UniProtKB/TrEMBL annotation, chain A:
Organism: Tistlia consotensis USBA 355
Transmembrane segments: 12-31, 37-61
Keywords from the named record: Membrane, Transmembrane, Transmembrane helix
Protein known as: Uncharacterized protein
UniProtKB/TrEMBL annotation, chain B:
Enzyme Commission designation: 2.7.13.3
Organism field: Tistlia consotensis USBA 355
Cell location: Membrane
Domain Histidine kinase: 680-903
Reactions it catalyzes: ATP + protein L-histidine = ADP + protein N-phospho-L-histidine
Protein name per the record: histidine kinase
Pfam families, per database record: HATPase_c (PF02518), HisKA (PF00512)
C-alpha cells in the first residue's frame, strides 16, 4: 500500500473518534435493556468500538510512513555504537 | 482439591522455567542472536506487564461490584496506543536518543539534567510503587492459600486475618533473587535486560492463556453459552450499575496516564525498546491483548455472582469458580497465571525503581561525599551494581513490610488506583517537556511537589482511615478547618474521592507548572535540552556538541570511562572512536563531539544528571554557546517557514499552470477559428467569383450570344457581385464591431417601435415563405439605450433566421417582448427542429451555419448571428440561445435579445410585466 503523506492526521481522527465513542454521553445512549444474539447491546457496543479501534490502528500503522532518521536496533556493544 | 505441596512444586517448577528462559535469552542476546528475543511480538507481550494480579483477579471483582467500570482501566491505554504516533513515538525516540535510563532520568534530562528533579521523581515513584508491590504479594499469598486449601470454606476467600505471611515473604525473596540475577547482571550501556524481557513475555502468554481458559470454561461448561450467562439475573445487576459519569472519564484518563507514567511501563516501553519500529506493531497488538484480557471478565463476574455461595470474595472468582467445580488442573493453571501477573510486575517495577534509586539517589550522594575519589577502574560500575542489588532487596523488603502492616485491613484493595493517581503527577511535566519549549525546571519541580503533596493528602492519607489517622481529620478537617478536609478540599464535597483527588492534584500541579515556567527563565542548558527534546524529530542529538564547547585531557576521559563502563567496554569504545578519527593506534582526540558522545554513553548507565557531573569533573572551560543555540532555534524555524513557503509556492504554481493551460486552450481555439474563418472567407468568396468568371468568359468568348441570354448572364454576374460586396461588407462590419472601431453614440430610443418596424419589414418575406408570423405579448413602451438602425438589423436578422430555418410543416414564428430582471427582453421563437445540441455552442461563431451545412445554400455566409451578438454587446446587451424545449413540445429554436433599460425607465418591472400580459 502507498504510505500516507499526512499520516498523523488520520491517527488523530481515529483517536478523537475513539474518545468520542467511548465517553458519555455517546456511550450512555447504549444503556438500554435491548439484546442482540443474547448479549446486551451495551456490551456489544463497547467491545465493538474497542475492536474497531484496534483494526483501525493496525491498518493505519501499516500505511504510516517510516520515520526519517529512525534508529533501528541499537548496537549490542558500545564499540559498535553510533 | 490440590495439596499445598503440588501447588508449591508447580510454582517452583514454573519459576525454574522462567530462570531457564531468562538465562538462555540473555545468553543468546549476548552472542548477538537477537532475532527471537527482540521481536515486536515479544516487545508487545512485555508491555502487558501493565496487567498485574490486580487485573488478573481484580478485574472480575471490579466488574462484580461496579459493572463495566473495570473496562476503563484498559480503554485508557488502548487510546494511548491508538494515538501512538503523537506521544509514544516521540517518547521512545527521545528515550533512545538521550539514552534515558528511567522516567526520572528523562524528566531530569529534559529540565537541564537537574538532579533535584530526578530525586523528587524517584521518591514519588518509590512511594507510589511500594504499596503496589505489596498488593502483588498479597494476591499471590491469598491465591496460594485458596488454591491449596483443603476446606470448602476457602471458596469464600481467605479472611485477611488468616493470611499466611510466610508465602508472601518467600515470594518476595524469590523475586528479589530473580531480579538481581537477571536485572543487574551488567550495567548495560542501553539498560537492556534481554533475559527479563523474555521471561516477562512468557509470563504475559501464560496469564492470557489462563484467563482465556477459565473464561471459556466458565461460559461454555458452567454457563452453557454466552446468551445463557447474560440471561442470568445477576447480569442485569452487573450491567445496571450507573457508571458513565465523571468517574468513567476520570478513570479512563487515569489509566491512559498510567500506561505512560508508571515507572515499569516506561522501563518496558521506552528503555527496553530495541527498535522504534516495534512500536508500530505494539500500537494495535497491545490493545488487542487488553481486549482479549477483558473479553471474559463480565461472564466470569456474572457467573460468579450467580453460582458462588453468598459471601464469596468476588476478587477470587477467577480461581474459586473452577475450584467449585473441582477442576484441579484448571485451578492450578489459574494460580500460575495470577502468579505470573504478580511476579512480572514485581520484577519490572523493582528493576525500574532500582535503576532510579541507584542513578538518582545513590550516585549523587556518592559524588557529593566523594566516595569515588580513588578513581579505580570500574569503581563506578561496581558501585552501581551493588547499589542496584541492594535497592532491589530494599524495595522488595519495603513492599513486604507494607504488606505485613496492611495485610489485616482492606487498605490494599484500593491501592491500584491510588498508585495510578500518584504517578499521574508526572504527566504535566512530561507532556510539557515533550511539546512546550518554555517548560522550565522550576515549574516542573513546583508542579510535581504540589501535585504529590495534594495526592498524598487527598488520596493516600484517607486510605489509612481508621488506622493511624484520627477520624476527626476527615469529618472536621485539620485543626477544625473544614475547608482543608482531605476528601472535600476547599469545600469541594460530594465528589467521588478519586475524581476529587485527581482533579485537585493535577490541576494544582499543571497550574503551578505552567505559571512558574512562564515567570522563570530557563538556564542555557535547560534551553538547549528543551530544543533537543521538543524538536527531536528535526534535530539529531549529536548536534549537542555544537553548543557545548569544552575540552579535557583524553587520559582523564579514558579513566572516567573505565570507571563507569568497565575496562573492556571503555577500551572498545575509545578504540572505535579513534579509528573513526583516522587514528589506528592510541587514544582518540578529545574533540567536543567525542565528549558529548561519551556523556550520552555514561548517561545510559548512570543517568544524565550524574553523567554530567562526572564529565564536568574532568572537563575544563565549558561554555554553552548561546549564539549557536539561537541559531539552532532559528534554523528550525527557518526550516518550518521554508517548507510552508514551498508549499504555498507550489500551490501558486499549480494555479498558474492551470491558468496557463486554460489560456493555451483558448488560444488554440482562437487559432482554429481564425483558420476556419480564413478558409470560410476564401470559400465564400470563391463561389461567386467562380460563377462571375465563368459567365464573363462565356460573354467574352461567345460573340453571337443572344442579347436576352447575355442580359441574364450579366444580371447573374451583377447578383454575384452584389453578394460578394454584401459578404465583404459583413466581414468588414463584423471586424469593425469586434475591434470596437465603430463609434456609435447610444441614444435613448423606443425599442418597441424598432421591433414593430422589423416585424413589418419581415412580413413580406414570411408571406413568401409561407410562414405565419405571430406577435405575442409585448412590453409596451420601452426606452433603451441603443442605435436604432443597428437594433433593427439585429431584429431583422433574428426574424429572418427564424423564417429561413423553420422546417416545420406549418411554420410559425412568434415574437414577444417583456421587461424582466431590469432588462428589456425580446424573444424570437419558432416551431422548427431547433438547434442541434452539438451545434449550440458554436452558432454564434463566424461562418458557423452549424445546422445548415448539409442543406442547400439557402443561408447567408453565417455571419448574421455573430454580427447580431456583436451589435447587442456594443449596446451592453446580449443575444442568447435559450435552452431547447423538450422534443415534440412544438418549441424549436428560441433566441433572446436583452438590452439594459435607459435611465429614467424606472417603472416597476412587475407592473410592466402585467401590462405586457394584457
Amino acid at each position: 500500500m502507498r504510505p500516507l503523506r499526512r499520516g498523523g492526521d488520520s491517527v488523530l481522527a481515529l483517536l478523537v473518534l475513539g474518545i468520542w465513542l467511548l465517553m458519555p454521553p455517546v456511550i450512555s445512549l447504549f444503556v438500554r435493556p435491548a439484546e442482540l444474539f443474547g448479549v446486551p447491546v451495551l456490551v456489544l457496543y463497547l467491545f465493538g468500538v474497542w475492536l474497531l479501534l484496534i483494526v483501525g490502528t493496525a491498518v493505519l500503522a501499516r500505511r504510516l510512513p517510516p520515520d526519517q532518521g529512525h534508529l533501528p536496533g541499537l548496537p549490542r556493544r558500545p564499540d559498535e555504537s553510533d | 482439591m490440590l495439596s499445598a505441596n503440588v501447588v508449591l512444586f508447580t510454582a517452583l517448577a514454573y519459576v525454574a522455567l522462567l530462570f531457564v528462559v531468562a538465562f538462555f535469552s540473555d545468553r543468546r542476546a549476548r552472542r548477538g542472536w537477537l532475532g527471537l528475543v527482540r521481536s515486536p511480538i515479544v516487545y508487545t507481550l512485555s508491555i502487558s506487564v501493565y496487567c498485574t494480579s490486580w487485573t488478573f483477579y481484580g478485574a472480575v471483582g471490579s466488574a462484580a461490584r461496579n459493572g463495566l467500570e473495570f473496562a476503563t482501566i484498559y480503554l485508557g491505554p488502548t487510546l494511548v496506543f491508538v494515538g501512538w504516533w503523537f506521544l509514544l513515538r516521540k517518547l521512545v525516540r527521545i528515550g533512545r536518543v538521550h539514552r534515558a535510563s528511567s522516567i526520572a532520568d528523562l524528566i531530569s534530562s529534559r529540565y537541564g539534567k537537574s538532579m533535584s528533579l530526578a530525586v523528587l521523581v524517584t521518591v514519588i515513584a518509590v512511594i507510589g510503587t511500594t504499596p503496589y508491590i505489596a498488593l502483588q504479594l498479597k494476591a499471590v499469598t491469598t491465591s496460594f492459600q485458596v488454591v491449596a486449601s483443603t476446606t470448602h470454606t476457602a471458596l469464600l476467600g481467605i479472611p485477611e486475618a488468616d493470611l499466611d505471611l510466610r508465602t508472601g515473604f518467600w515470594v518476595a525473596v524469590g523475586m528479589a533473587v530473580f531480579t538481581i540475577l537477571f536485572g543487574t547482571r551488567n550495567i548495560d550501556a542501553n539498560e537492556h535486560h534481554h533475559g527479563v524481557v523474555a521471561a516477562i513475555a512468557l509470563e504475559a502468554l501464560v496469564k492470557l492463556f489462563a484467563l482465556i481458559a477459565v473464561g471459556l470454561y466458565v461460559v461454555f461448561a458452567i454457563g452453557g453459552g454466552v446468551g445463557e450467562v447474560f440471561a442470568l439475573p445477576a447480569s442485569a445487576k452487573v450491567l445496571g450499575a450507573e457508571v458513565f459519569g465523571p468517574r468513567w472519564v476520570a478513570l479512563t484518563f487515569l489509566s491512559a496516564t498510567a500506561i505512560v507514567c508508571l515507572p515499569r511501563q516506561f522501563q518496558i516501553t521506552v528503555v527496553e525498546n530495541a527498535d522504534e519500529e516495534h512500536l508500530r506493531t505494539a500500537a494495535w497488538l497491545f490493545p488487542l491483548y487488553l481486549f482479549l484480557t477483558c473479553l471474559f471478565t463480565l461472564p466470569i463476574a456474572i457467573t460468579g455472582l450467580a453460582t458462588m455461595p453468598a459471601g464469596s470474595n468476588p476478587d477470587m472468582y477467577v480461581l474459586t469458580l473452577p475450584m467449585l467445580h473441582d477442576r484441579s488442573a484448571l485451578s492450578l493453571l489459574v494460580f500460575i497465571g495470577g502468579f505470573s501477573s504478580a511476579t512480572s510486575m514485581v520484577i519490572v517495577a523493582s528493576i525500574a525503581l532500582s535503576i532510579m534509586v541507584s542513578n538518582h539517589i545513590v550516585m549523587p550522594i556518592a559524588l557529593r561525599l566523594a566516595w569515588l575519589s580513588r578513581g579505580v577502574s570500574g569503581d563506578v560500575k561496581s558501585l552501581l551494581l551493588v547499589s542496584r542489588r541492594i535497592s532491589i532487596a530494599l524495595i522488595l523488603s519495603l513492599g513486604f513490610v507494607y504488606f505485613v502492616f496492611s495485610a489485616h485491613s482492606d487498605a490494599l484493595a484500593k491501592i491500584g488506583l491510588i498508585a495510578f493517581a500518584g504517578v499521574a503527577q508526572f504527566l504535566p511535566c512530561l507532556i510539557g517537556g515533550l511539546y512546550w519549549h518554555r517548560a522550565s525546571k522550576g515549574g516542573a519541580f513546583a508542579g510535581l511537589l504540589i501535585g504529590f503533596v495534594t495526592w498524598a493528602y487527598t488520596l493516600l492519607l484517607p486510605s489509612f482511615e481508621g488506622g493511624a489517622v484520627p477520624a476527626s481529620l476527615f469529618s472536621d478537617g485539620p485543626w477544625g478547618i473544614a475547608l482543608l478536609r482531605p476528601e472535600a478540599l476547599f469545600g469541594a464535597g460530594g465528589m467521588d474521592p478519586l475524581v476529587h483527588a485527581l482533579f485537585w492534584s493535577l490541576s494544582l500541579n499543571a497550574g503551578l507548572f505552567v505559571l512558574i515556567s512562564l515567570i522563570k527563565d530557563q538556564n542555557p542548558l535547560e534551553r538547549l535540552q528543551s530544543t533537543l527534546f521538543v524538536d527531536v524529530f528535526r534535530n539529531p542529538a549529536d548536534k549537542e556538541s555544537r553548543f557545548i564547547h569544552r575540552s579535557a585531557a583524553i587520559d582523564d576521559l579514558f579513566v572516567l570511562a573505565q570507571r563507569i563502563l568497565g575496562a573492556e567496554q571503555a577500551y572498545l569504545l575509545f578504540r572505535d572512536y579513534a579509528r573513526r578519527q583516522g587514528i589506528e593506534e592510541g587514544l582518540p582526540r578529545p574533540s567536543t563531539e567525542f565528549i558529548a558522545q561519551l556523556e550520552r554513553q555514561f548517561a545510559g548507565s548512570i543517568g544524565a544528571a550524574s553523567a554530567r557531573v562526572m564529565i564536568s569533573q574532568v572537563v575544563t572551560g565549558e561554555t554553552i554557546s548561546l549564539g549557536e543555540m539561537m541559531r539552532l532555534v532559528d534554523e528550525t524555524q527557518q526550516v518550518i517557514e521554508y517548507s510552508q513557503q514551498l508549499e504555498q509556492k507550489s500551490q501558486q504554481l499549480q494555479v498558474t499552470a492551470r491558468q496557463l493551460r486554460e489560456a493555451n486552450e483558448r488560444l488554440r481555439l482562437l487559432d482554429a477559428q481564425k483558420d476556419d474563418f480564413l478558409s470560410q472567407v476564401s470559400h465564400e468568396v470563391r463561389t461567386p467569383m467562380a460563377s462571375i468568371r465563368s459567365f464573363s468568359e462565356i460573354l467574352l468568348e461567345t460573340r453571337d450570344l443572344e442579347s436576352e441570354q447575355a442580359t441574364r448572364f450579366l444580371s447573374i454576374i451583377h447578383d454575384e457581385t452584389l453578394r460578394l460586396t454584401r459578404l465583404l461588407d459583413e466581414i468588414l462590419d463584423l471586424s469593425h464591431l469586434e475591434r470596437g472601431e465603430l463609434a456609435w453614440s447610444l441614444q435613448p430610443l423606443d425599442a418597441e417601435a424598432v421591433l414593430d418596424r422589423a416585424i413589418e419589414t419581415c412580413r413580406g418575406m414570411a408571406a413568401s415563405a409561407d410562414v405565419q408570423l405571430v406577435v405575442g405579448p409585448r412590453a409596451g413602451s420601452v426606452r433603451v439605450m441603443g442605435h436604432e438602425d443597428r437594433l433593427n438589423q439585429v431584429f431583422i436578422n433574428l426574424i429572418s433566421n427564424a423564417i429561413k430555418h423553420n422546417r416545420s410543416r406549418a411554420p410559425v414564428v412568434t415574437v414577444s417582448s417583456a421587461i424582466a430582471e431590469g432588462r428589456y427582453q425580446v424573444t424570437f421563437e419558432d416551431n422548427g427542429e431547433g438547434v442541434p445540441a452539438e451545434a449550440r455552442d458554436r452558432i454564434f461563431t463566424k461562418f458557423s451555419r452549424a445546422w445548415t451545412q448539409s442543406r442547400p445554400r439557402d443561408a447567408g455566409a453565417g455571419l448574421g448571428l455573430a454580427i447580431s451578438r456583436a451589435i447587442a454587446r456594443k449596446m451592453h446587451g446580449d443575444v442568447e440561445l435559450l435552452p431547447a424545449g423538450r422534443p415534440g413540445s412544438g418549441v424549436g429554436a428560441r433566441f433572446r435579445v436583452s438590452l439594459p433599460l435607459a435611465r429614467g425607465q424606472a417603472a416597476p418591472a412587475g407592473e410592466l410585466e402585467r401590462r405586457a400580459g394584457e
